[in-house]
């Protein structure tokens, strides 16, 4: 197994569907410009409430991607 070096970036994804969708949105957008994404870590979950109901989710994640050799 070779040794890897990772770079981490922090992202905030949002969705009106749920926190899972907010994570997927952030990773999909990052994947358009970053190569070799290997993992993510959820740091924070927030929500926006309107008239007593959840209107929007925001999830802050760290994404780790391999630095090319």
From TrEMBL:
Q: List the SUPFAM superfamilies.
A: Dodecin-like (SSF89807)
Highest rank taxon of the organism: Bacteria
Coiled-coil stretches:
none
| PANTHER family, per the entry | CALCIUM DODECIN
Q: Which InterPro entries match?
A: Dodecin (IPR009923), Dodecin-like (IPR025543), Dodecin-like_sf (IPR036694), Dodecin_bact (IPR050049)
From the Swiss-Prot or TrEMBL record, give the protein name. Dodecin
Per the UniProt entry, what species is this protein from, by scientific name? Pseudogulbenkiania ferrooxidans 2002
């Amino acid at each position: 197994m070779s040794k890897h070096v990772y770079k981490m970036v922090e992202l905030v994804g949002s969705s009106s569907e749920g926190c899972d969708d907010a994570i997927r949105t952030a990773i999909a957008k990052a994947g358009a410009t970053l190569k070799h994404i290997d993992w993510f870590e959820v740091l924070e979950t927030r929500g926006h409430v309107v008239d007593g109901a959840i209107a929007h989710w925001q999830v802050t994640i760290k994404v780790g991607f391999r630095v090319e050799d």
